[in-house]
Amino acid sequence: MKTSFYQYTLAELRALFAAHGLHASGPARFFHWHYKQHRREPCTEDIAKLTQSWVREHLSFDLPEVDTVQLSADRAVKFLFRFADGKKVETVLIPSKKKYGICLSSQVGCAMKCSFCHTGLQGLERHLGTHEIVGQLLAAQRWLTEHRPGDDRISTIVFMGQGEPLHNFDAVKAACEIFHTQHGLSFALDKITISTAGYLPGLERWSSEMPEVNIALSLHSTETSKRNELIPINAKYPVEKLLQVINAIPRKSKRFVIYEYLLARGFNDGEADARKLGEALKGKKAFVNLIPFNPFPGARYQRPTLSEINAFKATLDEYAVPSLVRITKGHEILAACGQLNSRQS
Ligand code: SAH
């Protein structure tokens, strides 16, 4: 059975080539050809015949299939991608000026069961492999090049789609290495953000193992009882411990830590909540993304009104903690945060 070319970091491909006695210059050439030049067929340029035939026999270059594409008036694009085993995930392109950010999924479903998240309701079906994470970006890039030529640049990557990225640490880490390497897609590390619900075992590995990408923590409340309701793993990995571990991650890799704060009407969007958030983050290198709750069928929370959202932000501003209300994109195609659910698509 063939393995996917896209599951290998450059170091792993070099080791694979070495183990099979193939030419050491091949891996960098393959990376350049497929990631920089976006070629579909296996590289033949300056590659020994023996290597070419070994690669054709052992590696596959297939990308996830586009099952459906939904377009939003604001240029957001939501893909439902289908993998070889029939499992599907959603990936979203988020427009900004002439470029796009891509929101990647890391698992089919999710084990975290956050009470406000559509994906959580689906439960975890399986982790994605590195090639399936990288494949989402390559397939979305291919679609853009074909359908929006001249307006096809993906400039940032966020792991904020389906799944808990730190629960699938090794595959996400390898995907980040592939995105970053200069022989490959050459994304700067500060253009990549991993968002976590607070999966402590992954955060504890971060400093020593993860490339220095941005960290985003889904905070949503600083109060134990409220956060336990929103994010059940908080009972096992409490927020105080998470903040401690995140703050201990070396400075350079920390840059600004992004804290996501979901605003659910009448639940965690009051003045007292804003003050607790301000107290917890003041003086830290923190940036807060305020995300008004995005409803989905059967949801138990509500979205606050614009004036309630603005009042929350104004209180937080008193603590000089920088924040931004995340303008929802792709809302009409259920492509916004927490609305992804590949079962019902
Ligand atoms: N598992 C990761 C990444 C997935 S979701 C994490 O929890 O961080 C990306 C962001 O969207 C998270 O902050 C998540 O809490 C938020 N989110 C999930 N469902 C939402 C909803 N219905 N409305 C608004 N934000 C939501």
What does this structure look like?
With 345 residues, this protein is of the alpha/beta class. The chain is 33% helix and 21% strand. It contains eleven helices and 14 strands. The strands form three sheets. Strands 3-4-5-6-9-10-11-12-13-14 form a ten-stranded mixed sheet, covered by helices on one side. Strand 4 and strand 5 (88-96) form a beta hairpin. It is elongated. The model has no long low-confidence stretch (mean pLDDT 93). Residues 116-117, 160, 164, 195-197, 218, 260, 262, 291, 293-294, 337-339 line the site of S-adenosyl-L-homocysteine.
How would you summarize the topology of this molecule?
Layout: E1 3-4, H1 10-19, H2 26-36, H3 49-58, E2 59-60, E3 65-71, E4 77-82, E5 88-96, E6 99-103, E7 107-109, E8 124-127, H4 130-147, E9 153-159, H5 169-180, E10 192-196, H6 200-209, E11 214-218, H7 224-230, H8 239-248, H9 251-254, E12 257-263, H10 271-281, E13 286-292, H11 306-317, E14 323-325
Parallel strand pairs: 1-2, 6-9, 9-10, 10-11, 11-12, 12-13, 13-14
Antiparallel strand pairs: 3-4, 4-5, 5-6, 7-8
Bound molecules: S-adenosyl-L-homocysteine.
